[in-house]
Description:
- The protein is globular and about 30 Å long.
- The protein has helices at residues 13-24, 36-46, 62-71, 92-97, 110-128, and strands spanning 5-9, 29-33, 50-54, 80-84, 102-105.
- The chain has a single domain (5-128), classed as 3-Layer(aba) Sandwich (Rossmann fold), CATH 3.40.50.2300.
- The chain is of the alpha/beta class.
Amino acid sequence: xxxxxxxxxxxxxxxxxxxxxxxxxxxxxxxxxxxxxxxxxxxxxxxxxxxxxxxxxxxxxxxxxxxxxxxxxxxxxxxxxxxxxxxxxxxxxxxxxxxxxxxxxxxxxxxxxxxxxxxxxxxxxxxxx
Length: 129
């Protein structure tokens, strides 16, 4: 079975490194982008199985990224886990409209993030059967 491909998007380099290491150590293929525009290009090109994106980024925010993904036939169903600042919340209505799988507040445990990624991917597979 091939490795699941995860696109990690954050403008904070240390977050990218921590998340990438945790995922790679658990047999995921990891792609990295430092802003939403770069992530959108990678998503179109690479078709990741899941995207982990910071909500607050330069050039294109995480919410703008998700909205653009949902407009494209090839990326509209990619699950997205959004990383949010502790005091930043997304309304349930917006979360449902953009089909955001989960939100995780920073600071977060890499172990918790890994569990969420595995759960989301498992749910994705279960709904395709």
